[in-house]
Amino acid sequence: MAVVEASDRDFYMLNREFRESARKRVNCSFSPDINFYDDGSNYGLFYRCWLLELAREVPASWTLEGFDISAAQYPAVEYLPSNVSLKTLDVYAKTSEDLIGRFDIVHIRAFTVVVRGEDTASLLKNVIAMLKPGGYLQWDEVDAGSFHPETPRASISTQCTDELLREWKNSCAKAGMGFVWISSLDDSFTSQGLEVVDSFRIAHRNDLKKAFSDNWLTALEEAGVSFTSRGGGSGPFATADGFRELFKNVVKETREGAGIALDLIVVLGKKRA
After folding, report:
1. Of 136, 169, 250, 254, whose Cβ has the fewest other Cβ atoms within 10 Å?
2. What is the rounded distance in angstroms from the CA atom of residue 83 to the CA atom of residue 44?
3. What is this structure's pTM?
4. Using the 8-state DSSP alphabet, how is residue 177 labeled?
5. C-alpha dihedral (176, 182, 188, 189), degrees to nearest 10
């Protein structure tokens, strides 16, 4: 197993400004539904905007709590539903006593560029500790390993898009981020003692391909800025000028119909009573 330095763990390639908040809001429309409707449930969530949508659909008696390592992208407390609270939490830190065995359901999402060294064990242990016996954990994850160019016609070039995705993956690998763990997430659940209730893969619908392609392109642009300013990027991600030139050509390809696609993996597990 790879050893991850603290500096690598702290590196987060996406910013926490308004553009990134808007991009994540689009991602919420790619959330699979879950159906847990029991009065009195406590629901923990590691993804902000989806929790706000859920608050409109579940009984008012539910307590909904959202967590992130930073509060920078939270809305004002005054704008939250009465049964929703948002807090800060480092999911890799030791689980505090007040969170142990607290939730009926925990939903986490988008840890692709957070997990280092293919190691989900410590993260899963902390999250599972937050569940009541018999509680459910749902993890939705973008499968970055499946990132690929996509076109409606074979005549459309994806040469630059191919290079962008290849060198982004290479840059991530140099920073300790691999993506093999995502496709075997159900095995990770099992190894941590969860019963896997369901596990499936979702591709983008045709009518959303353009929206999500633009969404991923925005994220990759931000990643390019992060890698070139931090250093250690691969190929065009190593210099600002090299990245800008490649990204300009990728945008040209998208105007001709090229796009970026990947799958979402969903795993639902149950903590044994």
Report:
1. 169
2. 12
3. 0.82
4. -
5. 140
